[in-house]
Amino acid sequence: MTLLEICLxxxxxxxxxxxxxxxxxxxxxxxxxxxxxxLSAGIFGQLFSVxxxxxxxxxxxxxxxxxxxxxxxxxxxxxxxxxxGDKLNRQFWLGAxxxxxxxxxxxx
Length: 108
Hints:
108 residues, mainly alpha, 84% helix
């Protein structure tokens, strides 16, 4: 795996995760202009994520990219907790630990 492939994979995951948080923010906003701005940012983030993934998949097997994509199952809830006060219970942290363990196992 090259440094470029790693960077593009991480960019795909983080932009997809950020876009989901933008869409949640849009759904919570009471001002229409804020809804439009956050929804637009969410759409742009998803498009950027897809672009990064497509570029990465030119040279990287899908099985490697999917390993990175699993990080979104941790990033989005933690981001929701930090930005919106969403609750994270013990089951979440247990699941997050299993995901991290799976990423480690799959990457070796």
